[in-house]
Amino acid sequence: MTYKIRLDKKVWLCIILIISLISLAIRYTIFTEKFFVDGLKILSMERNLNITGSLPSEDGSYQSAAIFFHYINFFDLDSFIQWSIYISIIFLFINFYLVKDIKLIELKKFLLLITGLFLWYLFSAGITKEVVQSLFFIIIYMVICNNKIKYKWIKFLIGIIIIYFSSILFREYFILMAVFAIYIYIISIILKKKKISSKYYFIWMTIFSILLVSFFLFIISIILPEEYTFIMILRTDYYYTQMMEVGTDSLITALVPGESLFIYIVNYIITYFRLLIPIELLFNIKIQYIPFVIYQLSFTYYYIKNISMLNTLNDKKFITIVFLSAYILVSAIMEPDFGSWVRHQTAIYFLMLILLKY
Q: Considering Cα of 355, then 288, then 18, then 29, what sign does the dihedral take?
């Protein structure tokens, strides 16, 4: 039996407000100083820009974030908690606008939705890079859900352009997401035309995705050797030592030893599934990981469930699945630890919302 709950605008507003307040309380009572390292760096750069009008030339994504927050700092905010409150208020209205039309929803979907919302406020609401990335995904959300745009390929193309600008203005490696999304879009169209049994869709999508990543790495090893070397060291002991010095305790280590491209692909496949099913975090007995593990397992369930219905998905969900798939593929290459995966994935809550809403 499927249980559904009824909601109205007042209830949604209260839910979002309560979630934001609880998240703020947890953030400043339980989390340690290392949680604020990135935010404090952006805050320092924003303050320096405000005082001197200049920024250091390095750290592209930090620099972009500092410039963004500088231009929205209408109240001369100068502390992390002030920014957390400010961003929480702004996104109270944004999140309310996105969910206010949901009047009837399955209980399981509702729980996943509010868990994703909770994690967003917990890890992103503040002077963080995730706020900037969230805005790009919110724009993509608005494009996908715009009923005035009749053709899904136009919505998809606009989404690709937005991701491309995101890679230029913010995170360079998001260019991979744009490239991978185009590939997955084409493969998905082919699979739909072949009318393959729905229970095999995820398997075929995974196989074609692994082939894509393998081909991509082979090509850049030839034409972009420096970038290839950087990707290779993300799973090496040298990089792990650097990350341990920073203070991370959830490294995504390579389980199969070796430095060849074949071994990297084997570890990549393992990492891909470790991101989707991160039950190993429960063995660390870290209480802050429990909500994320529950959320991730639920997300993975709905993600695979929607892929298995590829033939019958509406255009909104189809495009969303394509972008989510590309995002996960790129994350399996770039994410060094589960802490980064948790923070970065909060931004795609706004895409996941489409799978729950429509």
A: negative
